[in-house]
């Protein structure tokens, strides 16, 4: 029985075991690279996506819970030609070393900034509490999220005018 | 995808094989070499810069096609350290083109030079130096050819837009200038490299070329490789290092949805499925179906110092001079330990392999495509030339992690399913339990002060396994150890080298006329170990720099001044002075609950200089330590990408804080028990510093020294010294967990 998933604005009929975690469907059925397998245990945040504006760990969320809901991955934030504000800020601040954890960081950041475009340092750190980085890029990740917040604020991309679901 | 990855069908081997003898016309040679050529021929070929010495032909490094397309080849791999960008800067500078004009091909046994491992912070020294000189020599050849064709002096030419231009406006493109074998010549020992004042690209921050794809969902990692008809595999590892497979009824697993094959080869177990999630489900079922006999092979974790000393079989002298036991003043004596620690890539190891006819191709995030190829070929009994290993990025590795093992897993499975590409990815628990760890170490120091306030005697003894069990042979691979026709690991040997291994940085950079430094070598490895960023330098610098602080206290001296008292190398002094100055180092009492700490080392005692000062806060009630700020100064020679150096050094500082405050592999007598991020905690955002500064001392014209590992040891020491400063208590055992801190300060 196919499940209907709405990812980055497009609807897909997915023919998979309903217990399949969203991550595997994103990567294999939809060929989206952004969400990464890190632990499969909900401990590291590499697989983070947004579901209706909330940061969600796709490695432990079965697709049966997501029928018809708005799912956003890092591919939904912009493209390499036209990066979105969070992507732009991560490039500007050179906030990556290996970069494996970074899409997950960006999705946690996007969910935060959509709700709170002027977060405090503590807000940002709290929003990243489930995201692990092993290269030690933390200072640049924090700087990039502050920067993205400034850009989104000045562009009026607040919770009333959100870019993505 | 396949087309992109395998384009450029001509291999380096065919290029080399097709080439005749080397003939170089004298017009292409510089004056210095022309003079040398009149002397009798040397018995040995001349030493060439960097990795050119092992890969001596220019076209092994640089190819220019008739259409002007420029390809640069490196045997080094992008590990997230930014080497791709820095090497592009070097090549663009010397070829007089823009970085965007160059396609850089990284580690691939089918295409690039053999540069061994991408390790030891040596990519800039080895590959950067080689590419720099090769590019400069290619540029000289192009200019000489253009001068001949345009009938003007070479000095009247300039380069622009991949063309050589005369002062009268006539120009010839690089592609037009290059003819068939023009670049198939051996490099010369000297090159007219660009002078520091004239750099256009080098020495300036350049945005990393790989970041845009990584933040927008592009194909960036081997994990993202999807080949036509690709199958998904998962391995089932034994539950413990000494376990043997007793029996297995796999019939239930074979009947599961999507399962293509269940593989059993001795103790090597794997499932192969059409879908990835199906493979995970089948892996779990197979793990349940397998019955293992487990053996208690692991040592007593709580008694690590005794365990390590019992394993000693041999002693190597790292350094010895004067009378180390001399000392008429105060003596400091202490024992330091470092636990087993993991690399802990955020993305577990992954590889894709495919057999086509007689040929095997493996895509891997290995640090050494050539050694990995050799090990895999040996494991499978295949001729070397039928195996190709292509590097694709993985999650950051920080040394020898599961990459080579995953490549071997994929290769072994692919061999049993010819024609279908097979992707293997490890699970988190497998990465934590089976990657080779950074070895546990024990250090005993006894040092004394002379009446002049200087260190008079220095005795330093360290106990450690080897810090490298890389391939080297099929026995280095887990799959090869577990399969029916199994291979055994090589027995490690004690080897004292200038750059060091377990003994790395055991011999301090300080002036110590009377010293004895010994490596008590442990050939037996009860836990699997190998290279983790900085090797022995992490524990050795921690021990040395903790001792320096205690001796400074005993001498009633400022810790920074005390270090300077023992440093003669002006570059060492410069980083110490700069870090102290930018930090605002002082001896004023720190705010309550806070402390200041300093650490310094010249990495490997022959590479980058790094000094760091930290301010840390210690919560007396909980024992929680947080580094509030860190200020570092680094000299890694001539700077290519300053932001790359900053990024790597910031990363090293934060990773070392994580190792130092939180990290230890745990185990009982049979099994590894730290198998996820809950049982092996690492640094989280709540505990990262408020600020981290990296100040770079550029050394124009000096050799590249490498950057990636310089911070690991000094940061550990600085954190320990800051806790000592804050609480009056020194911690000797890594990591400085809350319990240890609370116990030490008696809260």
Automatic annotation (TrEMBL), chain A:
Residues 1-77 form the 2Fe-2S ferredoxin-type domain. SUPFAM superfamilies: 2Fe-2S ferredoxin-like (SSF54292), CO dehydrogenase ISP C-domain like (SSF47741). The keyword DNA repair does not apply. Gene3D superfamilies: 3.10.20.30, [2Fe-2S]-binding domain. GO terms for molecular function: 2 iron, 2 sulfur cluster binding; metal ion binding; oxidoreductase activity. Keywords: 2Fe-2S, Iron, Iron-sulfur, Metal-binding, Oxidoreductase. PANTHER family: BLR6046 PROTEIN, OXIDOREDUCTASE WITH IRON-SULFUR SUBUNIT. This is Isoquinoline 1-oxidoreductase. It comes from Mesorhizobium alhagi CCNWXJ12-2.
TrEMBL record, chain B:
It holds the Pfam family MoCoBD_2. Residues 487-506 are annotated as: Disordered. Residues 216-296 form the Aldehyde oxidase/xanthine dehydrogenase a/b hammerhead domain. Gene3D superfamilies: Aldehyde oxidase/xanthine dehydrogenase, a/b hammerhead, Aldehyde oxidase/xanthine dehydrogenase, molybdopterin binding domain. GO terms for molecular function: oxidoreductase activity. PANTHER family: ALDEHYDE DEHYDROGENASE, BLL3820 PROTEIN. This is Isoquinoline 1-oxidoreductase. It comes from Mesorhizobium alhagi CCNWXJ12-2.
């Amino acid at each position: 029985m196919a499940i209907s998933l709405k990812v980055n604005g497009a609807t897909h009929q997915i023919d998979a075991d309903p217990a399949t975690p969203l991550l595997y469907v994103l990567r294999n059925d939809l060929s989206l690279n952004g969400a990464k397998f890190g632990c499969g245990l909900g401990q590291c945040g590499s697989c983070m996506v947004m579901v209706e504006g909330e940061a969600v760990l796709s490695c432990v969320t079965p697709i049966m819970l997501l029928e018809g809901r708005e799912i956003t991955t890092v591919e939904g934030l912009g493209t390499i030609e036209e990066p979105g504000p969070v992507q732009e800020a991560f490039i500007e601040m050179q906030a990556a070393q290996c970069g494996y954890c970074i899409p997950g960081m960006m999705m946690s950041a996007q969910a935060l900034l959509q709700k709170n475009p002027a977060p405090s340092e503590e807000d940002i750190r709290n929003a990243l509490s489930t995201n692990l980085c092993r290269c030690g890029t933390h200072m640049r990740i924090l700087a990039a999220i502050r920067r993205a917040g400034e850009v989104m604020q000045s562009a009026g991309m607040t919770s009333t005018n959100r870019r993505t679901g | 995808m396949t087309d992109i990855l395998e384009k450029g069908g001509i291999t380096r081997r065919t290029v080399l094989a097709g080439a005749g003898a080397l003939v170089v016309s004298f017009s292409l040679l510089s004056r210095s070499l022309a003079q040398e050529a009149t002397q009798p021929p040397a018995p040995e070929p001349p030493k060439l810069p960097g990795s050119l010495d092992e890969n001596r032909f220019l076209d092994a490094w640089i190819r220019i096609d008739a259409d002007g397309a420029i390809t640069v080849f490196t045997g080094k791999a992008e590990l997230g350290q930014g080497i791709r960008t820095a090497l592009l800067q070097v090549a663009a500078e010397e070829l007089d083109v823009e970085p965007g004009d160059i396609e850089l091909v990284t580690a691939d046994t089918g295409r690039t030079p053999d540069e061994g491992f991408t390790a030891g912070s040596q990519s800039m020294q080895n590959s950067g130096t080689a590419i720099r000189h090769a590019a400069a020599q290619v540029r000289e050849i192009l200019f000489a050819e253009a001068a001949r064709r345009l009938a003007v002096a070479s000095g009247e030419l300039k380069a622009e837009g991949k063309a050589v231009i005369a002062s009268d406006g006539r120009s010839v493109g690089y592609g037009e200038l290059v003819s068939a074998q023009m670049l198939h010549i051996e490099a010369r020992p000297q090159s007219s490299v660009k002078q520091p004042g004239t750099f256009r690209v080098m020495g300036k921050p350049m945005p990393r070329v790989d970041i845009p794809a990584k933040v927008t969902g592009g194909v960036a990692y081997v994990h993202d490789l999807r080949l036509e008809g690709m199958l998904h595999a998962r391995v089932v590892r034994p539950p413990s290092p000494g376990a043997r497979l007793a029996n297995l009824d796999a019939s239930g697993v074979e009947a599961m949805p999507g399962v293509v094959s269940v593989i059993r080869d001795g103790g090597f177990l794997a499932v192969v499925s059409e879908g990835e999630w199906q493979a995970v489900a089948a892996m779990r079922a197979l793990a349940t179906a397998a019955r293992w006999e487990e053996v208690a092979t692991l040592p007593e974790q709580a008694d690590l110092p005794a365990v390590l000393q019992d394993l000693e079989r041999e002693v190597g002298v790292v350094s010895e001079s004067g009378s180390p036991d001399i000392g008429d003043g105060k003596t400091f004596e202490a024992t330091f330990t470092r636990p087993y620690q993991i690399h802990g890539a955020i993305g577990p190891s992954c590889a894709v392999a495919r057999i086509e006819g007689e040929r095997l191709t493996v895509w891997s995030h290995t640090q050494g495509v050539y050694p990995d190829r050799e090990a895999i070929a040996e494991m499978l009994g295949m001729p070397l030339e039928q195996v190709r290993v292509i590097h694709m990025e993985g999650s950051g590795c920080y040394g020898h992690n599961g990459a080579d093992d995953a490549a071997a897993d994929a290769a072994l499975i692919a061999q049993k399913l010819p024609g279908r590409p097979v992707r293997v990815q490890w699970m988190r628990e497998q990465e934590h339990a089976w990657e080779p760890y950074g070895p546990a170490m024990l250090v005993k120091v006894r040092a004394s002060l002379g009446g002049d306030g200087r260190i008079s005697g220095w005795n330093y003894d360290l106990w450690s396994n080897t810090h490298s069990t890389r391939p080297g042979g099929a026995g280095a691979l887990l799959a090869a150890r577990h399969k029916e026709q199994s291979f055994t690991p090589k027995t490690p040997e004690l080897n004292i080298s200038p750059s060091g291994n377990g003994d790395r940085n055991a011999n301090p950079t300080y002036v110590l006329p009377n010293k004895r430094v010994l490596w008590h070598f442990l050939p037996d490895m009860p836990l699997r170990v190998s290279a983790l960023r900085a090797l022995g330098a992490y524990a050795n610098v921690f021990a040395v720099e903790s001792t320096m602080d205690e001796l400074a206290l005993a001498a009633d001296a400022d810790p920074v001044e005390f270090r300077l008292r023992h440093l003669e190398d002006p570059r060492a002094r410069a980083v110490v002075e700069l870090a102290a100055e930018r930090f605002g180092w002082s001896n004023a009492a720190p705010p309550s609950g806070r402390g200041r700490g300093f650490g310094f080392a010249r990495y490997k005692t022959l590479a980058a200089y790094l000094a760091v000062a930290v301010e840390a806060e210690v919560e007396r009630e909980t024992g929680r330590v947080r580094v509030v700020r860190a200020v570092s100064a680094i000299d890694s020679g001539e700077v290519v990408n300053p932001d790359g150096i900053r990024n790597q050094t910031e990363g090293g500082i934060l990773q070392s804080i994580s190792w130092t405050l939180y990290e230890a592999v745990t185990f009982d007598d049979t099994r590894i028990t730290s198998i996820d991020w809950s049982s092996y905690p690492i640094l989280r955002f709540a505990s990262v510093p408020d600020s981290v500064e990296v100040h770079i001392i550029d050394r124009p014209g000096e050799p590249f020294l490498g950057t990636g590992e310089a911070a690991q040891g000094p940061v550990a020491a600085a954190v320990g010294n800051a806790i000592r400063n804050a609480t009056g208590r020194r911690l000797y055992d890594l990591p400085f967990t809350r319990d240890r801190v609370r116990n030490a300060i008696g809260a």
